[in-house]
């Protein structure tokens, strides 16, 4: 199983959960401009190139929720029909404020409009929720987790947050793994703005998520 960590901010500099992970690759993208919340075409081309050799399979840590659009770059690699399961306090399905630019608040909408292999999106953490037990099992799923769905006891993020406890998220993940084929998982919701002060709690939650997920792949 491959673990990828993408640095878009200094968030992971104040964490240690990844230091003992075998087969882990750190990709430092802090040199790129045009990436915060909105991804311009130049930066997008560079990011696609840097991720070119890596698969959507495995576990991907993708920094702050300001860069949740990185999930779209993983989804673009999936070549067979699949469903997306999203844990997020925001649906990320809003049209961009200007142009056709990829954004952290609109990447789900872009995925549904541009990826023919993406058949359904099931979102948990905001609005009406489909019971996990009735998500169709005939297609594999990709899971994207934004820790802003969690309460502030379990995550310090750059966005307003929900009130989901970590145990509930892990229970939902267990249910998904017990009944579905999982392609891969990505995790964002660290804090670039509060990288140092949020490091301890985010490190603990990332550690818990990795421990759980690594036993499933």
Structural description of this entry:
The protein is of the alpha/beta class. Helix content is 25%, strand content 20%. It has 5 helices and 9 strands; from the N terminus they run βββαβαββαββαβα. The strands form 2 sheets. A 7-stranded parallel sheet has the order 2-1-4-9-8-5-7, with helices on both faces.
Outline type: globular
Rounded mean pLDDT is: 96
User: What is the chains' assembly state?
Assistant: single chain
- With strands numbered from the N-terminus, the spatial order across the biggest sheet is 2-1-4-9-8-5-7
Helix content: 10-25%
Structural class: alpha/beta
Strand content: 15-25%
Q: How many DSSP E strands? A: 9
- Low-pLDDT runs of 5+ residues are none
- Nearest-angstrom radius of gyration? 16 Å
Which sequence of SSEs, written as H and E, runs from N to C? EEEHEHEEHEEHEH
Cα end-to-end separation: 6 Å
| Biggest sheet overview | 7 strands, parallel
Number of helices: 5
